[in-house]
Amino acid sequence: MKTNTRFIKSIVATAAKNDTVMPWARGARRAAFIAKRNEAEQPRKAA
Hints:
mainly alpha
């Protein structure tokens, strides 16, 4: 079966340009989410 190298190269190039931020990515957004979650759990643990 013949491989289509141009198609594969276009897929690789498109994947390299992808800059979608995932929720589990490291950074300030994740740290803020964890801090918010921990604040929500504090009253529950104290009760």
